[in-house]
Design a protein that fits this description.
Elements (H helix, E strand, L loop, with lengths): L4 H15 L9 E4 L10 E9 L2 E11 L12 E5 L9 E2 L5 E2 L1 E5 L9 H12 L18 E8 L2 E9 L4 H4 L13 E5 L20 E2 L2 E5 L11 H11 L5 H9 L2 H14 L9 E5 L8 E4 L27 H9 L2 H12 L6 H18 L1 H9 L9 H22 L14 E3 L2 E3 L2 E5 L2 E6 L2 E4 L14
Parallel strand pairs: 1-8
Antiparallel strand pairs: 1-2, 2-3, 3-4, 4-7, 5-6, 7-9, 8-9, 10-12, 10-13, 11-12, 13-14, 15-16, 17-18, 18-19
Amino acid sequence: MVLTMKAKTVLWIGLILLSVKSMAQEMPRLFLGYDTLASDTFYLSHMQLVQDSDTLSLPILLRRRGHSALYMDKPSYAIKILDSVGAKQDTSLLGMRSDNYWILDAMAVDHARMRNRVSMDLWLEFSRQPWYKAQEPKMLNGYRGQMVEVLVNDSSQGIYHLSERVDRKQLKLKKYSAKKGVQGLLYKSEYNYRTVYYNLWNTPSNTSVTWDGWEQQYPDAEDGEPIAWDALYHHIDVLTHTYGSSFVDTAQAHLDIPVYVDYILFVQLLCARDNKCKNLFVSFYNAGSQQALYTPWDLDHSWGRQYNGDLEASNTTVEWTENYLYRRMQYYYHLQDTLAARYAQLRQYYFTIEHIDSLFAPYFDLYATTGMDSIEQRLWSGHNRIDLDIPSEQMYIHDWVIDRLAYMDNLYDYTPSTPTDIDPVSSQDGVLTLPVKTLHQGRMMIHRGASTYDMMGQRVSESMHHPR
């Protein structure tokens, strides 16, 4: 019997779902209470986080968050945790870092309700470590997150992505102090038309946390820390106005190039056109460092969907030529050769349909086994022109990725080859064996042989080992 492409796709999805056994019978539930809420003011509220038989009750400050998210019917939130006397309190939620500031992303434009999370899962797996990782082994160039059901005034609001933030603590940038002054710096690019390394339109002011499409995230001006634009201004100035053979040395001194290369390939693979000039963090480890680190953010525009939820063709070109740093890197640094070589490595394992399917499948499985996909569709399908069919979206993403990989293969002149030592999977008799992934109390676990790891590559306790 010859299977049609459609039948093969259905069979493949079925096999993936069978290989990913969900150990969580219900999604963690986060209860909030409020009457009205705005985006510019935090309101005193309360939260309860229920996971299995454990309940965590905390006073919080709560507001709506986002830019375009503010226009969506399903609201996203920012949460600040308080102690009993109203001071900020760091707390670990669902196995993530201990912090007082958390994000609840509604994922309102995402037809799968997981693109941001899966994209970051992939980034954290394959992207190379920043240049100062040895000095700061606990730094993370990204953010962890878990899926939760949010209930407002005891009424379900569906699936949310509870996540950490990209901030000084996450990147382990050096702290500001009155004695040492400004050390680590963090900026966020907000707008495409100014953050393209084309020119310096005006001089930044030390009275404003925004400048030419950028926003200063650290030092924290809200806490009375200084506004400091010199590092970013110099970074853009030197990469914009250096030419010829000098540009190569300049780029190596002012960019974490391995991470930059991985970022370019990441955006290309996802077709994340909203991330080529904005939705990006640029940071400097300390006052003496010039090498800028890139950190991706806000990855809903990906995997075959645009920023508004519309379909994105798998052969869509990411117009990097709008980014003048990319153009200079191509012209002076011969970036295309570097990208092609790195792509050939990643194509052995990380950039394969098998691996990408294995990242999506546990979340789809969690939604199906808990019934949250039906709840989400009942609550929000049809809102803001987003019609939800979450099981069908899994098949759409699978087919789109197959076509996208073919597009990328052509773009980087890639032909299949024998797997290299970058491949972390085991091989027996020439057959590759993917690691098994499960969900344990809402956390993703990776099982390789007798060992079990979390998504950060940290080995976990024997109690979470793969069931035999």
